[in-house]
């Protein structure tokens, strides 16, 4: 997709349970740094040999990430997007420095590009970006809005393992907002999995250094 998906807020008992679990995690696992809140979902009844069982998509979290995702735009024309912008000359320079190419790929969450630069990117950076699942998304519509959406996004996908783990917030975020981020990811998975909620097995929440805690998805 050219633009990350956004889902509306959903109400219900699941949201209340998620909030309760996040509150318990914050109380029981104090560290001297701000931990991330991660969602771990194990899938069931999924045949990963079938192409339709695999996907990789970007989801706009309802309340963002607390700390924005890093976005890099490839463009010879755009300016002032609130992120790093690399020109065709920059691409050629980076292609000649494997260490810099790997560093940029490793430290950037999402790449976006104007269509004319895609052939060059594929030719000189494809071997670095493609294996990491970070080939640029095409810029369509309002570039500034697209960048802002990606700053609030996470990548969710199923490839070689029936387990999904993704960032849903920081422990210093409002608990209710983090819970709505979690719920949005679960609702998104229901729309992407072949049998919806029936393909969702265990759902766990954890802090960076903490033990996972199971929540019920009904």
What attributes characterize this protein structure?
4-stranded antiparallel β-sheet, Ribulose 1,5 Bisphosphate Carboxylase/Oxygenase
Describe this structure as you would to a colleague:
- The protein has 218 residues and is an alpha/beta fold.
- The protein folds into two domains: 5-66 and 152-215, Ribosomal protein L1/L10, rRNA-binding domain (Ribulose 1,5 Bisphosphate Carboxylase/Oxygenase); 71-141, Rossmann fold (3-Layer(aba) Sandwich).
- 33% of the residues lie in helices and 25% in strands.
- The chain is built from seven helices and eleven strands.
- It has helices spanning 13-28, 88-95, 98-107, 118-124, 126-129, 143-151, 175-192, and strands at residues 5-6, 36-43, 55-60, 71-74, 84-86, 110-113, 137-138, 153-158, 163-170, 200-207, 213-215.
- The strands form three sheets. Strands 9-2-10-11 form a four-stranded antiparallel beta sheet, covered by helices on one side. Strands 5-4-6-7 form a four-stranded parallel beta sheet.
- Helix 1 (13-28) crosses helix 7 (175-192).
- The longest helix has 18 residues, at 175-192.
